[in-house]
Amino acid sequence: IIQLPAFLSRQTDLVVAMAKTGAVINIKKAQFLAPQEMQHIITKCEEAGNDQVILCERGSSFGYNNL
User: Fold this and answer.
1) Residue 10 DSSP label
2) Looking at residue 62, what is its pLDDT?
3) Domain tally for the chain?
4) Tell me: the pLDDT tens digits for 10-34?
5) Is the residue at 27 inside a domain?
6) What are φ and ψ of residue 28, in 5° steps?
7) Burial environment of residue 25 by CB neighbours within 10 A (0 to 12, 13 to 18, 19 or more)
8) Per-residue model confidence (pLDDT) at position 53
9) Can you name the residues that pair with 3 across neighbouring β-strands?
């Protein structure tokens, strides 16, 4: 299992490189993201050929979609 830190979850190149390893990816949700926004990260992994994704909910700082 490879863990993607919350604050790096929006870095497309890193997400794709991790997905291409074929390992299970544990993605920690950043506190500034709403849960539904995680779908974009999952899609990036799937497009890179890896559907083995674990999502880790970590709460929010200011409510969803409200920075």
Assistant:
1) T
2) 65
3) 1
4) 899 999 999 999 999 999 998 888 8
5) yes
6) -85, 130
7) buried
8) 96
9) 26
Q: Which residues lie closer than 8 Å to 46 by C-beta, 6 or more apart?
A: 19
Assigned domain for 66 exists: no
Range of the domain at 21: 2-56
Beta partners for residue 53, in sequence order? 25
Longest alpha-carbon distance in the chain: 35
Per residue in 32-58, pLDDT (tens digit) is 888 888 999 999 999 999 999 999 987
> What pTM does this model have?
0.82
17 domain-assigned: yes
Identify the sign of the CA torsion 52, 41, 32, 35: negative
Report helix, strand or coil for 5.
Answer: coil
Instruction: Evaluate whether residue 45 is within a structural domain.
Output: yes
